[in-house]
Amino acid sequence: MELSINGKKYSTSGDPEEFLVWVLRDELGLTGTKFGCGAGICGACTVLVDGSPVRSCITPATALKGQRITTIEGISKTLPNGEIKFHPVQQAFIDEQTPQCSWCMSGQILTALAFLKSTPEPTDEEIEQAMSNNYCRCGCYDRIRSAVKRAAMLMNEEKDQKSTLRVS
Length: 168
Ligand code: FES
Ligand code: FES
Known about the structure:
alpha+beta, two-stranded antiparallel sheet, binds FE2/S2 (inorganic) cluster
């Protein structure tokens, strides 16, 4: 089976009914996606499929043939000088020193990214609501909310810079 992940084509030879989280972690070595509850509840295993959050622990890989899968490994960029440029959402989580153990963070970041694409200027209530189905066992909820707020600001700044460059 062929899957499109982070802009690359991957061939997998295992059971196509296997849940995506295991294909990513065990077959393809993309271990940034974490396994938590295994029941679609906690959000630790969240990836993006065609830009929307999907729980990879309950989604068979075969259901995603032909769709665009994005994992946490796919949102940063490597610059020509070899430096990693983090996505603004990742940068915001770093700036706010959000994680404790970090287990939930890939899911938090990808959920926030999808949310901010559709809601670039969120209210505190909208942030609370959008992130409410991603659990953090370390209880970093205040810092997660601050990071999402900061991420909105960084994404909007980046958008403004790009449109200024286009005009000039
Ligand atoms: S591990 Fe998938 S939702 Fe918890
Ligand atoms: S930082 Fe530990 S589970 Fe969220």
